[in-house]
Write a structure and sequence with these properties.
Elements lengths: L2 H25 L6 H23 L1 H6 L4 H28 L2 H8 L2 H13 L7 H15 L5 H30 L3 H23 L4 H6 L1 H25 L2 H8 L2 H12 L6 H23 L8
Amino acid sequence: MSRNFIALTCAITCSFLWGTAFIAQDTGMDYIGPWTFSAARLLLGFFALLPFFFIFEFKEIKKIKSNFKIIIFNMLLLGFFLAGGNIFQQISLIYTDVANSAVFTVLYVVIVPVLAYFLFSKKIHKSVWPAVIMCLLGGLLLSELNNYRVRLGDSLVVIGAFFWALHIVYVSKFLKIFNYPITIAAFQCLIAAMFSAVPAISIEFISFKLLSLEAGELLYAGVLSSGLAFLLQIIALQHLSPAPAAIIFSLEGVFASVAAWILLDQYLNEFKVLGIIIILSAVIFSQLAPIYGKKIYGRN
C-alpha cells in the first residue's frame, strides 16, 4: 500500500471527523460553556494519544539531541494556535449555525498562502485574489446581514480561521525539524487544553456532573475529532503536497453542512446553499490553479 494512498485516506477520514464533530460541538453546550467544552475535548484528545506516544515515539524522543528549547517553544506556539482556533469556532456556534461555522472555518485554506507569503516570503499565486473575492461573496450570501447574532458568530469563525491557518503553516514548518506526529498531536492538545482551561475556570462553572451530561459529545469531539483527527492531519501533511491536502481538508465544510441538515434540521435556503458552493469553489480553485501553473506556494 503506497504512502500517498495512506495519506489520502488519512486526509479524507480527518475531514469527515472534523466536519461531523460540529454536530457534537453544537449540541455539547447544553450544560457546559464553550471554554469548558474546548478544554475538555482537547484534554481527552491528549489522553487518547498518550498510550500511542509511549508505545511508538517515547524511546525515540529520548535519543534525539535537538535543542529542546526550540521544540518546546514550537509546541507552545502550536498549542496556542490550536486553542485559538478551537475556542473561536466553539463560541461561534452559540450565535450562528453549523453550516456557517464550518464553511467559514475552511477559509483557512485561502488564508494559508497569504500568511506563508508574509511570514516566510513564499510565493503567492495570483489565483488567491479571485478566491478571496469569491469567499467574500459567498460569505455575504451565508451571513444574515440583518441578524446581529449571526454576523457576530460568523465574524468569530473568520478570526478562528486565521488561527487554523497559522496552525497549519507552523505544523508544516515544525515537521521539518521534529518529525514525530504522535508527539506533536498529543502535546499540542495538552497545551491547547491548558490555554482553554484558564478562562474556563475563571468565568464558567465546572463540575464532573455537568461534564458527564455531555459525555457523548465530548468523547466524539475529543477522542475522535481532536486526538485521532489531528494525528491523521499531521500524517497526511507528511506525504501529501499542501494543495491537494488542503482541498481534502476543506471537505469538512461539506460534511458539517450535510450532517447539520440531516441531524439538526438546520435548513439551508437557496442563498446559503449558493454561498457554500461559492466558498468551496473558491477554496478548490485557489489550490488547483497553482498545480496547473506548476508553481509552488504555501508549505514547501
